[in-house]
What does this fold into?
Amino acid sequence: MVITCPKCQHTNDAATGKPMETCPQCGVIYARAALAQAQQRQAETVRSRVRAAAPEANAPGFVERVGWYLCLSGAVLAGVELAWTFAKAESAPQQAAGAALALGLAAIPYCFARALQMLMRR
Ligand SMILES: [Zn+2]
It folds into this structure.
């Protein structure tokens, strides 16, 4: 029987095919070297599949990004509104109205963005 060593490529014309047979050239056990090579190929396949799948699984789509930009601008507006309210409001009802408006400016775009994100989920 002829076996070509998976490690050193030596061709053994006098191979027996026994499970623990070793290569006369480099001393590796044929079965173990073949298994290691198969595992390496399998690991490489898994890595390439993960690499191929990851970007589209993790990156937000266009609609999701629009939602999150709206959320960001809502948060900035809410901060400005809150600062303006506490700097300029002349009464407690004015402060309360300003704070409520700021809360709405921050919360509504956030809910909108979260809803879009969930709806766009694959
Ligand atoms: Zn060998």
User: Anything to note?
Assistant: Helices lie at 30-58, 62-88, 92-120. The chain has two domains: 3-57, 60-120. The chain has a mean pLDDT of 91.
